[in-house]
Amino acid sequence: MHNLLFQKLNQGKSIICFDLDGALLIDRDEIHLVDRKILGTEHDVAIFIPTSGRILESIKRTFRRNELSSIRPNNPR
Q1: pLDDT top residue among 6 and 25
Q2: What average pLDDT score do residues 26-53 get?
Q3: Which residues does 14 contact at the CB level (< 8 Å), separation at least 6?
Q4: Which residues are 50's β-sheet partners?
Q5: Which candidate, 28, 22, 16, 18, places its Cα nearest to that of 62?
Q6: Average pLDDT over residues 7-33
Q7: What's the confidence (pLDDT) of residue 66?
Q8: Of 31, 42, 44, 48, which residue is 20 to 30 A from 9 by alpha carbon distance?
């Protein structure tokens, strides 16, 4: 995962970290449709990384419920 991150940074991509609870989620585990479209698309300029006090499995579950690939590349849906 670290190698992938450094590779993307070397390609000129920015890293954007975002909080899940109280920011991204509009309900307990629901991500707004517009945000899902943004997160579900490969971007040329940025990598989006979720931050949370939740355990990793909870984050993965939330992404799957919202039809997003969970954490990549080592942990496919």
Answers
A1: 25
A2: 86
A3: 45, 46, 47
A4: 18
A5: 28
A6: 83
A7: 92
A8: 31
Nearest to 9 by CA among 45, 43, 42: 45
Q: pTM of the predicted model, to two decimals?
A: 0.68
Burial of residue 31 (CB within 10 Å: 0-12, 13-18, 19+) is: buried
Taking the C-alpha atoms of residue 75 and residue 23, their distance in angstroms, rounded to an integer, is 24
DSSP H helical ranges for 11-55:
33-39
| Side chain identity at residue 18, one-letter code | F
Residue pair 28/64 in contact (Cβ under 8 Å)? The answer is no
Beta strands 14-19 and 46-51: pairing type? Answer: parallel
